[in-house]
Design goal:
Length: about 240
Amino acid sequence: MTTRFDDKEPGNEITVEFDFGPELTTVSSPSVTIAVFSGADPDVASMLIGSPVVSGAKVLQRIRAGLNGVDYALACVATSGTDTYTIGAILPVRERPIASSAVARYITEAQFEARFGEREFADLTANGASYAQAENDSASLIDGYLSTRYTLPLVSVPAMVTSWAGDITRFRLWDDHAPEEVRRRYEDAISQLKQLADGRINLPPGSDGVPVASGGDVGYFSNTRVFTECSLKGF
């Protein structure tokens, strides 16, 4: 069995996990080896820190260093009873791209922190995730809905757009680990944007988003009043 770990940055120290479950409940006598799978690294053996640790059917091993662009092959061998089992894995080492210099458009970092808390913001950006890039991606998604009825860019951003941007950006930063509450708020934001695009809700007056002129006939419905010479007597 072979797996592929997430990319590791050269300067980070991480713990990799070899899971022998669910068939096995416990393992013993583990050993972990590492070698170069692709690329070159003359000091590959020094990446292993200490001995592997057993936790039930899982084996944990600390890893450090590594060279950018090199893929490493790890093998974990453990026993259960009289049987021996092996798990192979590939560990890519890659430098994280430099964070984007994009500027937030609909919700600033300060507004995001005020809405969701400084702790959550710090946790979501701790691994180098770019808040501005996530916010820009969210803003582009919002623009796709706004542009069906309003000219862009908006000169001023109404609170409802800031709220949508916050929930969508938050969901993007959580990525695959988004809890149910974060996912629900994201889905609610998308639902409201669809309602706006369908004309069921509008941006508030004064938000400076000018409705796009329709290509067809537009009907305006009101109580009919006919002004004649007689009806205007007395005015």
